Amino acid sequence: MKIFLISKKVLILVLGTLLLLETACAPSRYVKPLEHKQHAVSGSFGGPMATIPGVATIPIPFSSLGYGYGLKPKTTLYANWYTTAAVFGVIQFDAGVTQELWKNETATMGVSISPSVNFYTDIFEHNTRLYPQLDANYYYDYWHKTKESSKGKQKVKTNNFYIGCSNWFELQGTKAHEQKQKSRVIFSPQFGHTFERNKWNYTLEVKLLAPYKSNQDIVMDYVSPFGKKGAMGLYFGITYKL
Asked: Would you list the DSSP string of the chain?
């Protein structure tokens, strides 16, 4: 019975977040573009920090699976399917491109942008939403290890951190209960760290979700460094490069 009650609380929390948060429930996809013609598969786990009564304070367990392709040396295409949402009857995915705008001569730092589109539809209520998104990130490689090969020195291990922002754009003029939509741009700053290896990347990211919007009078009890504003998201991502 206790397990059932916990599952019910988690169900309410997840569904409430999907419908009310209306902001990023995943980490940055590709801060640094993949190599030209490189393929990659990825997964992510995590979401806004919330207190579940009688259980714990944890990140909402959103998960997603994705694919990326290095279309050009500075351009990566990607798409992701949200697996947790699918379990609860919501078809959700995103698709976009990461474009490198600038990189220094030693390739230790750079700036990228990632325009994308987020789509979801509730198969029970038939609610459908489309959210354009634009992310921008600055990254810095502060440590790397190389090895000699027939192609000369190649990086096999790299540590880097990044900082940036995520912007969701609201296209609907009204929200729930026919209320007027006042916020057309949902801004969320972020910072993260990536351990890059020859084939595997491991990323931890903290996102400050809509830190200027009230988090009161909704289903979830969000945890936020700004008290009654926004929420703090915690995410883990893993990528395997083919």
From this structure: -HHHHHHHHHHHHHHHHHHHT-S--S--S-SSPPPTT-EEEEEEEEEEEEEETTTEEEE---EEEEEEEEEETTEEEEEEEEHHHHHTTEEEEEEEEEEEEEE-TTSSEEEEEEEEEEEEEETTT--EEEEEEEEEEEEEEEEEEEEEETTEEEEEEEEEEEEEEEEEE---SB-GGG-B---SEEEEEEEEEEEEESSEEEEEEEEEEEEEEE--SSSS-B--TTTTEEEEEEEEEEEEE-
